[in-house]
UniProtKB/TrEMBL annotation, chains A, B:
Pfam families xref list: polyprenyl_synt
Domain of life: Bacteria
UniProt KW keywords: Isoprene biosynthesis, Magnesium, Metal-binding, Transferase
Name of the protein in its database record: Polyprenyl synthetase family protein
Cofactor(s) the protein needs: Mg(2+)
UniProt record similarity statement: Belongs to the FPP/GGPP synthase family.
Single GO MF descriptor: prenyltransferase activity
Biological processes per GO annotation: terpenoid biosynthetic process
Keyword flag Magnesium: yes
Signal peptide range in chain numbering: none
Species name: Pseudodesulfovibrio senegalensis
Cross-referenced Gene3D superfamilies: Farnesyl Diphosphate Synthase
PANTHER family named among the record's database cross-references: FARNESYL DIPHOSPHATE SYNTHASE
Gene Ontology cellular-component terms listed: cytoplasm
Length: 298, 298
């Protein structure tokens, strides 16, 4: 099986969990519809799969970690809903369909985002409260994921990105990297780290998971920028060339396409390096997954 | 000391904690400024004080519970920022100052809200992660507070309220009560319940805390409606009579002023009833606090 096929297979079990995780919470009908509209709009489910795979690799109970893994997708989805709002990136399309505020309305989209973010934390705690995982591990993982998703992480990264948009000229590479590390890197890193924490593995393994995640996160962002230049509109579900049109600072704009690809490959090699102490199918999968992320641009 | 003075005294220690709880998180400057602008804009700090008082009443470590208590104010503040947005209630003023999106801009206000909500969950976990409180208690409290703040609670209540606004004619009392129970009641209830959970008290005490909170929450909302009719604009920091102007369904509009006051008093008596098994200064304070909430309308 290729990494893509394995990813798709694992994504399906996440999908199944996501499709019922908002039931029986007394959510008003229209709000629930809007939350589900975005949560179940497809996507690779990369973050939950990373968390589950690291948990499994380190001998943890991946099944018990499923609610926690699903929470990563709730957080990712809420961030997309809020980023698409007219006051933010003002995007009418997301994954080839109307964005949440276009399909519903702005107020509902804001609340759907708020709701998904809050339910994410409820999901994180479920495994610890209902049994299955030790409370101290879960609590530590909630802390790590909260910091990554918060104003010093993902939310902060979006704020910096908004500031960049209002600025004249290109943003220096270093600042761009720092912004991406917050906006997209932090959540991917936390996914791997939390999977490791939930497995109960020692700190050294947690560190490997974190560093793997960090490297994969950087590569992922570079590839995203490259795909905006060379990608296929139908496959991506969004217009190609929009970054350049909007005068956005990107890796290809700053260092060129070839150098961007080279950088991405370097980060993937770095990520794979953190797997050298592990063996078996999970280690192989995480290796393939890292490589697959870069292969998408060739 | 009156309840008002005691509340103010306790609020000061919460205030002190809030003023430094967002430091050293790597939050971008403008985003941090905007989060602090709303978080430190005054307010009674009722929810944190309720949590700390119930924790103390049941023999818990109120000092260790402070980060958790502060998280309640972060959640309350984020909800006000998002509720004020143009797409929601479109309020230009909050506590006598420009609302967050007026002082900064819409994108920053959305992100400040997202940031405060996420940091709230980080704060909740702090006491358990850094030691001081047992992880299983903290985790259970995070679960309870998350549900109360989420789409089946506060966020859901705001969604229902938005639906009411678009509706012709008055909303039936029963539906109004259900909306308020979600929009404002859930968080006040959770404040009391979580304080009890963090103290490690048995389920019966947790139930008393919850029922006290539920009753106080209902009384609080009725009083809020009454104050919009008879209150003093300068004291409230917002225009009086705005509910009627906007054709909002309120307790006074549905059952009249006298009956509203009577209802509020009844709920306060109910709240105090849940304190009858407890003695000492904390029990007295929680009794006074419940009565003070209603006294504001006389």
């Amino acid at each position: 099986m290729t990494a893509k096929q394995m990813l798709a297979q694992r994504a399906r079990s996440v999908e199944e969990y996501l499709s019922q995780c908002l039931e029986e919470r007394g959510i008003p009908a229209r709000l629930l519809e809007s939350m589900r509209y975005s949560l179940l709009a497809g996507g690779k489910r990369l973050r939950p799969v990373l968390a589950l795979s690291w948990c499994e690799l380190l001998g943890g109970d991946a099944e018990a970690a499923m609610p926690f893994a699903a929470s990563l997708e709730c957080i990712h989805t809420y961030s997309l809903i809020h980023d698409d709002l007219p006051a933010m990136d003002d995007d009418d399309l997301r994954r080839g369909r109307p964005s949440n505020h276009k399909q519903f309305d702005e107020a509902t989209a804001i609340l759907a985002g708020d709701g998904l973010l809050t339910e994410a934390f409820v999901l994180m705690t479920e495994a610890g409260v209902k049994g299955g995982l030790a409370a101290d591990r879960v609590l530590r993982a909630v802390n790590v994921l909260g910091r990554a998703a918060g104003s010093g992480g993902m939310v902060g990264g979006q704020a910096v990105d908004m500031e960049f948009t209002g600025r004249e000229g290109q943003v220096p590479l270093e600042e761009l990297q720092q912004m991406h590390a917050m906006k997209t890197g932090a959540l991917i890193t936390a996914a791997c780290e939390c999977g490791a924490i939930l497995s109960g593995a020692p700190d050294e393994d947690v560190r490997n998971a974190r560093e793997y995640g960090r490297a994969v996160g950087v590569a992922f962002q570079i590839v995203d920028d490259v795909l905006d230049v060379v990608g296929d509109e139908a496959t991506l579900g969004k217009p190609v060339g929009s970054d350049e049109e909007q005068g956005k600072s990107t890796y290809p704009a700053l260092v060129g396409l070839d150098k961007s690809r080279e950088l991405a490959r370097g980060h993937v090699d770095g990520a794979v390096g953190h797997l050298c102490g592990y063996h078996g199918p999970e280690s192989e999968f995480l290796t393939l997954l890292a490589r697959y992320i870069v292969d998408r641009v060739y």
